[in-house]
Design goal:
Helix content: 25-40%
CATH architecture: 2-Layer Sandwich
CATH topology: Ribosomal Protein S5, domain 2
GO biological process, one term: translation
Number of strands: 5
Keywords: Ribonucleoprotein, Ribosomal protein
Number of domains: 1
Shape: elongated
InterPro entries: Ribosomal_Su5_D2-typ_SF (IPR020568), Ribosomal_uS9 (IPR000754), Ribosomal_uS9_bac/plastid (IPR023035), Ribosomal_uS9_CS (IPR020574), Ribsml_uS5_D2-typ_fold_subgr (IPR014721)
Order of helices and strands: EEEEHHEHH
GO molecular function: RNA binding; structural constituent of ribosome
Distance between the termini: 64 Å
Protein name: Small ribosomal subunit protein uS9
CATH class: Alpha Beta
């Protein structure tokens, strides 16, 4: 388990579906990303799309990955929702670090919370919209 960096950090909370990510952005450091005590590749496994989503705000700003160290606590949801929540939280932390980043991150869509959620099951239906099969006789 990696040691938590000490010193000043910038905080951002991100949400996606039912996942909630609390992101701490430490200026300087080795550029590592720690998610729930594991490195990002270990946490997401072979899912390169999730790793790309997590680092997307840094790429949108053309920031060097080695300039910042990230520690993340994420709960709820699945891998895709967690990756989106981390991306949202990282974008918010970057805006706290430098308010000039806000316009570029807003244009890229990383500061907008994705409102899509799973639709609730309705009474009398099998799922949210699937009705029982109709029989005439």
């Amino acid at each position: 388990m990696a040691d938590t960096p000490k010193g000043e950090y910038f905080y951002g909370m991100g949400r996606r579906k039912t996942a909630v990510a609390r992101v701490r952005l430490f200026p300087g450091g080795d550029g590592s990303i720690t998610i729930n005590g594991k490195t990002a590749p270990n946490y997401f496994g072979q899912r390169d799309t999730h790793l790309a989503a997590v680092a997307a705000p840094l790429r949108a700003l053309d920031l060097n990955n080695n300039a910042y160290t990230l520690t993340v606590r994420v709960v709820g949801g699945g891998a895709s929702g967690q990756a989106g929540a981390i991306r949202h939280g990282l974008a918010r932390a970057l805006v706290r670090l430098n308010p000039d980043f806000k316009l570029a991150l807003r244009r890229a869509g990383y500061l907008t919370r994705d409102p899509r959620m799973k639709e609730r099951k309705k009474p009398g239906l099998k799922r949210a919209r699937k009705a029982p099969q109709y029989t005439k006789r």
